[in-house]
Specification:
Layout lengths: L3 E4 L4 E4 H13 L2 E9 L4 E9 L4 H7 L6 E10 L5 E10 L6 H17 L5 E5 L7 H8 L1
Parallel strand pairs: 2-4, 6-7
Antiparallel strand pairs: 1-2, 3-4, 3-5, 5-6
């Protein structure tokens, strides 16, 4: 059986694949982003989708559902004013208005447990509609 990390506050578990996929993104740069979802039946946070290294931020935003919550991490690469290549990892808590109240509550209470498992996140963005997580916001926060 795969390893899982228990989140004490909600009784949810974070599947080991979440941490291993995150480490592949962070250290090996094989993923540009990862989308996570909660499976209420199994009480597991699992990987919903991974974006290949060549994919961009618009691919991530397009993969988020309009009517359900998700978590996502995005590896933002950029060049500083003094021409240094940098990378910052964003954690996105996606809770669109159209999602069910139960889902919003479950994702809100489970977020910190997942964040603790994903070591190395620089910034967090919470969004209820696409304008709250626009690429301009990501660029501004990373500077």
């Amino acid at each position: 059986m795969a390893m899982a990390f228990k989140m004490a506050t909600t009784g949810m578990w974070v599947a080991d694949e979440c941490k291993s996929s995150f480490m592949e993104m962070k250290w090996k740069k094989v993923h540009r982003y990862i989308v996570f979802k909660i499976d209420e039946k199994s009480k597991l946070v699992t990987v919903d989708k991974v974006g290949a290294a060549g994919e961009g931020y618009s691919d991530l935003t397009a993969s988020l559902p309009d009517d359900d919550c998700r978590y996502a991490v995005f590896d933002f690469d950029f060049v500083t004013v003094d021409n240094c290549r940098k990378s910052k990892i964003f954690f996105i808590a996606w809770a669109p208005s159209a999602s069910k109240i139960r889902a919003k509550m479950l994702y809100a209470t489970s977020k910190d447990g997942l964040r603790r498992v994903l070591d190395g996140i620089h910034y967090e963005v919470q969004a209820t509609d696409p304008t709250e997580m626009g690429f301009d916001i990501i660029q501004d926060r990373a500077k």
